[in-house]
Amino acid sequence: MSAIINNSFRKYNADNFISSISSNKVYLMIGKNDPWANADLGQYVETNPSDIDVPVPIDTSVSQYIHYNDMIAAKLISGTSVSHVLKRVDWTSGTVYPEYNQYTDDIIDTDFFVFTEAFRVYKCISNYGGVPSTIQPTGTSTGIIETSDNYRWKFMFEVQQSDVLKFVTTDWIPVNSPANPTAQPEQKAVEDAAVNGALEHIAVTTGGALYKAHAGQAQAGASTNITLAATGQNIVDYYNGMTVYISDGVGSGQLRTITDYDNVTKIATVNSAWTTNPDNTSVYEVMPAVTLTPQAGDAPLGTGAVARVSGVTAGAITKISMVSVGTNYRFLTAEVTSGLATGGTAATLAARTSPPGGHGKNAVSELGGAFVMLNVRLIGNEGNDFPIDDDFRKVHLVANPTAGGSAATGSTYNNSELDQDSGSIIYTEFRGPIVRASDSTEDIKLVCEF
Fold first, then answer.
1. Each residue of 35-68: pLDDT tens digit?
2. Within 177-315, where are the H helices?
3. Cα(190)–Cα(359) distance, rounded to whole angstroms?
């Protein structure tokens, strides 16, 4: 028998914890104003701890009693001081970022997304076969953003300025979804545009060898054909089965399959009539065809995606582009099915289907919602309950303590106001001494992993 705790379960617990902050009273409690010294089997096992060699807390039945004995003061945590957070991965030129792959185990543990200097987060959709990223992604488009280094990125969200001070650290950045449509219109637009089962990318696993390719400017066009440039191959039917894509000029964006090629006139007949007939201004690319096959019996069955080869270098396939991304794809194969010269080696492709809901639908789920940060600022004496010109070494989270026999509801309490041993201490952290002064502010950030 074997089992795992799914990332969705971890997010579920993180979501519930955040929700509980509003329905429960959770306080940040500080304690211990005397130095670490001597052994204390009730709360740690080290025999010679000190303020430099801080001990590691242990969870025993008596530890809560000890922590309450050491209590100095407690402050209520508001719902606006809690957020999902992600590990911070700063975009750095020259780094190879792993691309999104639906088959990657624990993908949230990989660096497949980046945080830019504009405080925006982008998911790597394609790393162009594993090359270093040299162009920082920018923009907030709802579509895939392609940079000149051939990386393809998905804009996910922008960290709001109101959240920077609370939740951004050298290791963590905040994330939330669904987006607030007023404060985060760009993220909301991405969420609304997400398509379940969209096929946003097809990776080239191996490029193969001896693939045909041709590009040029058309000499003319008609409803079911295009006259290729004079540099077209002088071999009859040479391009049959390959695709022709109008990349610029009249008819731009159209893709058709060549069914017949006259090597004398250079006329390539296509499988269906053009929506807009090309002419002598049309720039085209003749490339091998890509065939997409959804898995038989899959329900719903993916439909609507169309892909094309958009890069061939020295006979090897280097890039696949999407003409349309379709919907409801979960399992499918992608193959290059034409354009291979005699003696050539076939390329292999890997279709990258999107996560449930589509890329950008839920940033927390897609990027790793298993971490929660709580931020509490202790300013001066905090209503005369937090002493100054003193220090503390313990930080706790206490859920639903009582004061005077009733549920605690105040914003701050000193060590004599909360009922001894009440509530539940759900988090404990030992630190070196933190000295408090009348003009100081302690900005305490706690990260809980679920």
1. 999 999 899 999 999 999 999 999 999 999 999 9
2. 185-193
3. 8
Residues 234 and 301 in one domain: no
In a domain, 1, yes or no: no
Query: Which residue positions in the chain have pLDDT lower than 50?
Result: none
What is the DSSP pairing of strand 71-76 with strand 412-414? antiparallel
Q: What does the alpha-carbon distance between residue 402 and residue 421 come to, in Å, rounded to a whole number?
A: 9
Q: Which CATH number goes with the domain that contains 158?
A: 2.170.290
Instruction: Fill in the DSSP letter of residue 409.
Output: -
Does the global pTM surpass 0.90? yes
Closest CA to 315 of 292, 346, 290: 346
Amino acid symbol at 138 = T
> Of the residues 368, 399, 414, which one is the last residue of a structural domain?
368
Give residue 152's domain range.
84-195+358-368
In order of 99, 317, 329, 346, the CA distances from 354 in angstroms are 12, 23, 8, 26
Residue 232 in contact with residue 222, Cβ under 8 Å? no
Are 222 and 275 found together in one domain?
A: yes
